[in-house]
Amino acid sequence: MKRERLANGILTAVFIPLCILYMMPVIIVLYNSFKPNALINTDTFALPTAQTFTGMRNYVEGITFGNYPFLNSAMNSLQITVVSTLLLLLCTSMAAWYMSRVNDLFSRIVYYLCIFSMVVPFQMVMYTLPQTAMRLRLNTPHTIPVIYMGFGAGLAVFMFVGFVKGIPLEIEEAAAIDGCNPVRTYFSVVLPMLKPIYISVGVLEIMWIWNDYLLPYLVLDKTLYRTIPIHIQYLQGSYGHVDLGAVMALIMLSITPVILFYLFCQQYIISGVAAGAVKG
């Protein structure tokens, strides 16, 4: 017991400074969002004082800057993230269930193609992606989830297949004996058991899609559609002047929903990732 307590104390003493170190970028962005632009440029690490505290002015300026409303950018990001994540979860989980249970040559080929897609650098396709998306009319917030499904399917299928292999086949056989067809078996029997890995994959995909800058920048028409990362990139005035206070404020507005969502679901993430990576 004493050794365990000593080990726990040492680990706590080591990891608390590491946690603070990892949180420092977020903390710096947070208190800089309440400082004037001039002070951010000259003394980035200084805390705001009673004289330099700007209140919500940076947030108001960031939201009202430019001709493209920030609310539209937020709604575009929300729509793309929600639709892309739901599409990814539904399609890849059903595909993974089929691959795990059928396990024929075709299923194995598709599975290894999904795994191979994880090691293909995005830079290999980014030059042809805008033209392809334009020709296929995938360059709007309503259709770009199809592209996200293509880029995110590899990791999702890999994690789902590993988890499904740990589900006893007898449960599905019992459902089939009771008269369930494959669709009903999936939604009534398999889907409830996939909850831990569903949440894990969902959180990972949401964090990626919500914060993604490059893919929407390449695909979307910036005059008509912008996401929050693209909106922040356009926060510059004449002669390239950038209002860093407004940028910091919008960065905080951008990362806060993801941080809260991650903290709410973190208990499912580790268990789901471990189960999806180890089982099978």
Architecture overview:
This protein is mainly α and 280 residues long. The chain has one domain (70-278): MetI-like (MetI-like fold). Helices cover 72% and strands 0% of the residues. The protein contains 13 helices and no strands. Residues 276-280 have low confidence and may be disordered.
Mean pLDDT: 86
Task: Please provide the ordered H/E string of secondary-structure elements.
Answer: HHHHHHHHHHHHH
Please report the total strand number as a whole number. Answer: 0
CATH topology term: MetI-like fold
Number of domains: 1
Helical proportion, percent range: over 70%
End-to-end gap = 35 Å
CATH class category? Mainly Alpha
Strand portion: under 5%
SS element count, helices? 13
Q: Sheet with the most strands? A: none
Alpha carbon gyration radius: 23 Å
Shape: globular
Overall CATH architecture: Orthogonal Bundle
List the helices and strands and how they pair.
Layout: H1 2-32, H2 37-42, H3 57-64, H4 70-102, H5 105-117, H6 129-135, H7 145-164, H8 169-177, H9 182-193, H10 195-211, H11 214-219, H12 228-233, H13 244-278
Helix pairs in contact: 1-13, 3-13, 4-5, 4-7, 4-10, 5-7, 7-10, 7-13, 8-9, 10-13
Give a brief outline of the structure.
The chain has 280 residues and is mostly helical.
Supply the key terms.
single chain; 280 residues; mainly alpha; MetI-like fold; 13 helices; disordered C terminus
